[in-house]
Amino acid sequence: MSLPAAFHDIAKRVNNWGRWGDDDEIGTLNLITEETVRGAAAAVRGGLRIPLALPLRQDGVQTGVIPGRVNPLHTMVQINQELFGPGTVATSDDMVTMGLQSATHWDALTHASHSGRLYNGRRADTITPHEGARFSGIDKAPPVVSRGVLLDVARAKGLDRLPGDHAVTPEDLDEAAEFGRLTVRGGDIVLVRTGQMQLFLGGDRHGYGYPSPGLSVRTPEWFHARDVAAVANDTLTFEIFPPEIENLWLPVHALHLVEMGMLQGQNWNLEALSTACAQEQRHTFLLSAMPEPFVGGTGTPVAPVAVL
Amino acid sequence: MSLPAAFHDIAKRVNNWGRWGDDDEIGTLNLITEETVRGAAAAVRGGLRIPLALPLRQDGVQTGVIPGRVNPLHTMVQINQELFGPGTVATSDDMVTMGLQSATHWDALTHASHSGRLYNGRRADTITPHEGARFSGIDKAPPVVSRGVLLDVARAKGLDRLPGDHAVTPEDLDEAAEFGRLTVRGGDIVLVRTGQMQLFLGGDRHGYGYPSPGLSVRTPEWFHARDVAAVANDTLTFEIFPPEIENLWLPVHALHLVEMGMLQGQNWNLEALSTACAQEQRHTFLLSAMPEPFVGGTGTPVAPVAVL
Amino acid sequence: MSLPAAFHDIAKRVNNWGRWGDDDEIGTLNLITEETVRGAAAAVRGGLRIPLALPLRQDGVQTGVIPGRVNPLHTMVQINQELFGPGTVATSDDMVTMGLQSATHWDALTHASHSGRLYNGRRADTITPHEGARFSGIDKAPPVVSRGVLLDVARAKGLDRLPGDHAVTPEDLDEAAEFGRLTVRGGDIVLVRTGQMQLFLGGDRHGYGYPSPGLSVRTPEWFHARDVAAVANDTLTFEIFPPEIENLWLPVHALHLVEMGMLQGQNWNLEALSTACAQEQRHTFLLSAMPEPFVGGTGTPVAPVAVL
Amino acid sequence: MSLPAAFHDIAKRVNNWGRWGDDDEIGTLNLITEETVRGAAAAVRGGLRIPLALPLRQDGVQTGVIPGRVNPLHTMVQINQELFGPGTVATSDDMVTMGLQSATHWDALTHASHSGRLYNGRRADTITPHEGARFSGIDKAPPVVSRGVLLDVARAKGLDRLPGDHAVTPEDLDEAAEFGRLTVRGGDIVLVRTGQMQLFLGGDRHGYGYPSPGLSVRTPEWFHARDVAAVANDTLTFEIFPPEIENLWLPVHALHLVEMGMLQGQNWNLEALSTACAQEQRHTFLLSAMPEPFVGGTGTPVAPVAVL
């Protein structure tokens, strides 16, 4: 079995291999320039800071359906330990075991492969248990600070949240941009809100995961045309799930990560941001969403913050 | 045994318990206001982004001397796994086990206690294996984005790095502020550079840890007087180690975390920032240093970024 | 709230504190003597070896209901890694993260406490995050090899498995001993079969855990009278769950572990053993059930084997 | 580069591929028959039980030299937690993260491969991060209970321990068998004592690991000729290290695990057993050394016990 022609047609149109040289490992993060960053700083008006990460806890978004992707398990290794003798200052230390993709996270470019290839044509088997991802590991990413824009698809449609079978289309993105009175610029990081996170926040972990609204296979071309640097949303699967085209699983992953070399983020909590942007009537802000530099990592937890 | 009078004298002068109410769990992070954040954005000039985190890897800064504090151990749980059948898009997933204080990190206010008490007078035994820190866990911290200032103590003295027995004094901080032509303001996050990180980067893990230059027990009053929001530096122990006063171990931890309720950060790599600030002749910038919101965590890895 | 008089009455009758000295940390394992072991060897007839552990895997018996008790998560850290250069002999290494009580396991004596006390009157707060259990940790246990006896309560009653609300009584144990034509002797390790494991093996993890047949609060006296060295069974909770007496949770744990100082084992797979014993018409055997010597551990995975 | 002719010559002579069928996954463990087990029980005389595992702790035998092989890290997830309300019976639970080959352990047959092949000709790439070892994982091993024999090479030579450059030869094994007045039989598990463990027990972790006495590349033929079921010793590397033949690394691993399909064990503490056998003037016993059944595991911690 191989991927269908429909996939390869899009792939050809959005492919960025070689665009920043044969040795490039960071893809569309190249699009964040110093000018972009100055624009991001200029987007700060009131000084409001809105965190976008879910709390890291054992009853997080993972249900066990994705093998090996474990919610954060936090344990104490020391509690008020008087390391230097009785009556001295005491310290507490803790430890965590977690899947790098288990919570609010970035997928590294190496999180997906197809046809034996990673972004920029690297062989998929350059990912090994010993080293992790030799190329395009998350540790290679430059600082992810740029202008952020919220495309609030649900609110633009007057909905609390999109239904589970709604594929977010380019038309939806246009509508949300218009709603937010903004123009997406090169180097922007786009946050797409579906409202699906409300299910998780309301206690329905399984409903949150499946079925899920998410990006349509038609959207990578939209992001490509606008030179977007990265995209994140408020779902577990990122793309519409189950998929639009029968037996074509995870096409948006393959297009963004492998073909375009564009970071994508999942499980971002955009609820408070949605409220704030609506109140402020501004949908652009400085976004800092720094990867933790796991050497060879194919993903990373992230604690993003929007500064309006 | 109990802590000496010298400690309690300082403690009284810097104590912030009750300052933001009896229920406060975030201490000096209260000092970061929207105005502070606007000032931080205004500190961005060229748009240069400088990451301050060490790579997360098994051969990190921990040597085993601090029990239970394990360097990040990264393993792959899936590599190019075609979850939906042969020939489909493949994914790779990874997992980490790590001490929350093992790499570039923030200490939560609950990382230290003395005399059975935590910040704001909470009982130390409210930290449990089951819940972690019930109060002032790292998940309670608001977004840590503010104006950052680099006090480059080593460079101000014309040194590559301070010697291992150098306690950084208030006078050193004044000198570095003058060198950077800056005034520390309320809500600022202060980064103190000793240059000690060069030892680790040069391969000497043991020498990096001990002996180590670091903050003097006299500096908390300096930070307190200026309403600093948080302090981080480029050492393992943060404060001068071994300590200035015999048998008074970790006094700066106790003053910052317990008495003042001020976040402190360790193992920050300030080398590239030092070079950039010297070149730009500016030592102020927007700093984003978001904690990962581990529920009940007494610390967190952090991937800080300075934007100049 | 405190434990009811009904509990304390039994506790007095089965209490072994001081029986083997004030410093004793191993309780009824003292009852396994060299003579017992010779008897165990003499119980081997045909030479059949029957393993009693469940496979260790991520989809094990834990469902997430017991906080922090995680099923074994197995990852590869190296796969066919040619550590000494291309073409050399390659090795594969793996790692596990698991709850010590998550699978087929022994509870150490320190797994339970009540009224602030552990076995032999030790203070409960001698268990710390730093050291684990200072006294009676699982590493203190002598080799657990003795004569094993199967009390096949379900088969003795002509049932596949006991119903979920069946408390196994002393009368049931007598009936099963008679069915097995055996007399329990001092130093024996008793395996009590309910058949509940069939639910887990049949795919019903939740039904396996709750409701569950298990030992009645009346059985500790039966074991005490016979100087049994340890008891294990084929359930998650060991004792009848929910409990027989309203609001008296885990009384058997408290009686066995705290009062008697007797190891107890859970999640043992006794299905194949039941069949073999019925076929051989013998219900006694050599049992080796060695704890892994985790220093300070309050439990341990175990891979028991019955040799008939 | 490929393995030298010297290796392949021996390999041909000891190869067991196909001996127990093309589907066999357990190799020489086939040699333990019911008769063998009866013989093992008959070897029990006095009833002395001697444990052979090192304590599992963070300061175990691993020094960090072998990447990813982490000493056991034990943490408490609950301490005296009154899960059912104040005043109820409390429980403590713990968790471990550890390398399966980090302490006293068995190598599964899949721990080594060469020339792209595993035991019985299976492809090496059947080991994956997702499944671990699809064939010959440690979970496939039948119960490892058999007659054990101690070949006390050091004591037979009148030495406390063999020097670091001593390769244990077939002649050494003969000498030790004669010293123990025993004949190795088919299905026996052979324990070879070098005394090297004294270095670790004496606090010299690095000296324990390197240089190390161990089995010569000439010994696999000796074990093969005697139909030995498994071999373990008291060193980190099992075989003489550095190796006898320049650039031929880990040949004994390849011969035992890949060619013969024979389990091998490392880091076994044979000191107390050596003393006991010398006192009892018997070097044969019942040995129980049950693998923990990690599904797909290429190794396992083991807590062996000798019963004399």
Automatic annotation (TrEMBL), chains A, B, C, D:
Pfam families hit by this protein: Cyclase (PF04199)
GO terms, molecular function: hydrolase activity
Tell me the enzyme class. Answer: hydrolase
Stretches assigned to coiled coil: none
**Keywords, ordered alphabetically:** Hydrolase
InterPro entries, per database record: KFase/CYL, KFase_sf
Q: What is its EC number?
A: 3.5.-.-
Specify the protein name. Cyclase family protein
Organism, as annotated: Streptomyces xantholiticus
